Amino acid sequence: MSLTFAAPTDDAIPLTLVAKESLAKVKETLPDSHAAWLDASGYSAGLGAVLVLPGKDGKIDGALVGLGDAKARARMRFGTAKARAALPEGTYRLVTDLTGHALDEVALGWLLAGNTFEKYTKHPAPKAELIAPDGVDAARLQAIAAGEALTRDLINTPASDMGPADLADAARALADEFGAEIDVIVGDDLIEQNFPMIHAVGRAAARAPRLIDMHWGESGPTLTLVGKGVCFDTGGLNLKPGASMGLMKKDMGGAATVLGLARMIMALGLKLQLRVLIPAVENAVSGDAFRPGDILTSRKGLTVEINNTDAEGRLVLADALALGDEDMPDLMVSMATLTGAARVAVGPDLAPFYATDEMDADALRVAAPKVADPVWEMPFWTPYDAMIEPGIADLDNAPKGGFAGSITAALFLKRFVTDTDRYVHFDIFGWQPSAAPARPVGGVGQGARALLEALPGMLKL
Fold it and tell me: Does the keyword Protein transport apply (predicted)?
């Protein structure tokens, strides 16, 4: 992987960004030989399209990268990142009038285009390198790219190599890198320390469930991140069909995303006190599996009727949220690949979120487009509270009827956050279903960059 900018050099190749609407003007600035080459090639500055400008000595004089037209730019994030794989080997310097967030997106897209998953097979690394453009915070962008790469790698790793212990090892390695403290509660110790629902969901698996608890930072406002770490989800006794089980290695995408975000926060040295909580389990089938109709008592003391063992993510998150709530952080955020209903509502690209504080929601709405990390607010719609109250217990983990599945799941989680005033929940997909610029098919972070951008305002850093 190549996730850093190149060192400055005097012989860097100029890489000129050109929009379709300004191609004719750019052509006028080119030497006659390059202008003729542009005409001969039929180059039209399509988004991410590359035109190499040959020199008289056989070397490269420069290259053009298309910005497309306004419609193309609106439809595709990181569109110019396609150019990295198409450019010949060399070190390039950017020539552009772009500034601010538009320039950041180009530079970050370049870095993310260097991210390949190579745990099981090698992929050719891009040979083109870019000097950090003037006007960008290179260290920040490199930290963001590294955090995103961590998230992707964790999601892409199959459950055979990413069980609860492996996820804990990944968190421990991150803690060691940045001097964070970490504690992991394993197996039956979860019962002794009052995490009954995490234990109930994970007890049927051969690999023991656990709760990962990481702390970093000694001063500043308090932020708690909670990530769903279901390393594989069979559906339990409500077994998923094979087609629905195929992507379930990504069911720990919430955990992967909060670890990636934590990496960004720690690498950038944000002045806050960070806590990361990850309930890491496998939802498996055995004689010890929890059953439909069971009633579980949570850490919070609320009872939960199990009407579907495939709605397990909210159960393990509930105990972790209850723990986080006991410290009453300034802000608590949960991230989870929680419901198919969210995908039906907004598709794979948008990350729906819920917020108890409207100012936090506003901050995320403003931050997201600045960092090309789209989010969409959904409501904690209290009239639907009755849907998660079965009567036989305090809560129902899988209300009947099929309506408002993402909202009712969010309302369920909110019941476990009673002392913390500000709570945000993300119901993410965590997967790129088709290749896009800087985002190959596979695991992908969602919401982390938007949160990172919004945090200074949300927490007054």
Answer: no
Report the distance separating Cα 196 and Cα 296, nearest Å: 8
Catalytically annotated residue among 152, 314, 414, 449: 314
Please, are residues 307 and 398 in contact by the beta-carbon 8 Å criterion?
Answer: yes
Give me the residues paired with residue 14 across strands.
93
Q: Environment class of residue 194 by beta-carbon count within 10 Å: exposed (0-12), middle (13-18) or buried (19+)? A: middle
Residue of 202, 169, 170, 172 lying closest to 187 (CA atoms):
202
| 25 included as an active-site residue | no
Return the closest-CA partner of residue 377 out of 401, 348, 346: 346
Rounded to an integer, what distance in angstroms lies between the CA atom of residue 440 and that of residue 126? 14
Residue with tokens 């019941």: 415
Among residues 73, 140, 172, 240, the one annotated as catalytic is 240
Distances (CA, A) of 456 to 136, 178, 271, 338, 460: 18, 20, 9, 27, 5
pLDDT in tens, 123-158: 887 899 999 999 999 999 999 999 999 999 999 999
Task: Note the pLDDT tens digit of each residue in 399-418.
Answer: 988 899 999 999 999 999 99
Report the candidate in 198, 193, 196, 228 with the shortest Cα–Cα distance to residue 210: 198
Yes or no: say if 135 and 99 are a contact pair by the CB < 8 Å rule.
Answer: yes
Active site residue 300: no
Interatomic CA distance for residues 279 and 281, integer angstroms? 6
